[in-house]
Amino acid sequence: MSSQAVGGSSFFSGFTRLSKGLAAVLVGGYALIQIFPPAVTYLALIPARTIPFAWNLITAGYVEQSVFGVVVGTVGLLFIGKLLEPIWGSREFFKFIIVVNFLTSVCIFITAIALYYITRQENYLYTPLSGFHGVLSGFLVGIKQIVPDQELALFSVLKIKAKWVPSLLLFLAIATSFFTENAASYLPTLIFGTYTSWIYLRYLQRKPETSLKGDPSEEFAFWTFFPEFLRPVIDPIASVFDRMLCGKSETSSQTKGYTLAAEPLPGSDPIEASRRRERGARALEERLAAERAAGGGTEDLKRRDAVENV
Predict the structure, then answer these.
(1) What is the mean pLDDT of each run of 10 residues along the chain (310 residues)?
(2) In what ranges is there compositional bias, type Basic and acidic residues (predicted)?
């Protein structure tokens, strides 16, 4: 029993207070719509009712309509929060969730209205849309930014670098959506969650150590979500974001990490980006070392029990 307790504590410990609080909100939201089903019409995003029920743009992201959704959302929030929140800080972590959730809901609302006018199918207006998976996909973009070259083991078999995980998720989601209607319903949220989080981290997130916004490093450019041979096609698309969010006069200079005087912007050069990744990698290594130490303690207890039994 003691050895199991040691192993379990290393895996299920370290969850932040904010992550646990938000996980309780996800569980509570699911419980509410199970006990009182009409609540989904007031909390989920229903495009035809978003005006005047504009709060749906905020509440929809925290309401899961299935057991699968609430389990994935809760587990993902707790475990990814252990990595991101200590690096970003609780305030920035919470701000990231609020902003990405809201922007994702706005994009879904606009897309649903556009699809209705194109197809005249009313299901685009009256289908309740909700779930935390948009923010979860955004978390993966955060990991891509912090530890892009960290190898992650998927299903204990496939190893893939963290920078490719968001792209792999979207590829699998798109491929699956051709075969199941349920998977297709998740696709818009995953897509908008991924790319709105990139916009926030690329252009809007303020770094307390430099008082600057965004991450204009080449390693976090838009084209890094795609194979490199597509870069000539992707770069013109990315330039649209630069013009909108950086300004026409500063686009060519700031995205490369330089001012108009050809001097490096503080915090925007490769050195600052490298420091940020080092902090992320160090935090990840510390957690892995703690888990390995706890695992080693488990093995010692097992060997001790074996000797005593003999």
Answers:
(1) 47 82 95 94 92 91 93 94 91 95 95 93 91 95 91 73 91 88 84 94 79 83 88 84 63 40 43 58 62 54 43
(2) 272-290, 299-310
Give the separation between CA 22 and CA 28, rounded to whole angstroms.
10
SS3 assignment, position 238: helix
Alpha-carbon gap, residue 38 to 46, rounded angstroms? 13
Please give the pLDDT value at position 282: 63
Long-range CB contacts for residues 277-283, cutoff 8 Å, separation at least 24: 277/146, 277/147, 277/148, 277/149, 279/87, 279/146, 280/83, 280/87, 280/146, 280/147, 281/146, 281/147, 281/150, 283/83, 283/86, 283/87
- pLDDT at residue 93 in the model: 95
88: buried, middle or exposed (CB in 10 Å: 19+, 13-18, 0-12)? buried
In angstroms, the CA 199 to CA 282 distance is 25
What does the pLDDT read at residue 12? 62
Q: How far is CA 231 from the centre of its chain?
A: 23
Domains by residue range for the chain, with CATH: 2-309 (1.20.1540.10)
CB 219 within 8 A of CB 274: no
Give the β-pairing of 206-207 and 151-154. Answer: unpaired
Helix/strand/coil (H, E, C) string of 164-211? HHHHHHHHHHHHHHCCCHHHHHHHHHHHHHHHHHHHHHHHHCEECCCC
* Torsion, CA 57, CA 58, CA 64, CA 70, rounded to 10: 140
C-alpha 67/C-alpha 31 separation (Å) is 10
- Partners of residue 264 on adjacent β-strands: 258
Phi, psi of 248 (to 5 degrees): -65, -40
Q: What is the pTM assigned to this prediction?
A: 0.78
Residue 257 near residue 268, CB atoms below 8 Å: yes
What are residue 154's DSSP bridge partners? 158
* Closest-CA residue to 278 (of 150, 165, 137, 90): 150
